[in-house]
Amino acid sequence: MAEKLLKALTLKEIERIFTITDALGISREALVIPLRTETPGRIGILKSGKLEIVVERDTDFDQWLSHLEPELRALTNPAQD
Hints:
three-stranded mixed beta sheet; 3 helices; globular
């Protein structure tokens, strides 16, 4: 199966991201998902408080997506010491 490297997201990829964020209870209004992919990709919280999800350009999308949920959980629910 060929790797699926993306230069830009389509509605199909965004909907797959929403499937994960919806399941985590993250409002779509709280998300910023740029259409252009970047290297490196990143997930972080903007100064506005919104969650930014920038898809990695040089990694297969399905592979990148498999890491999204654990990364979002770590970012939105930091471990309590």
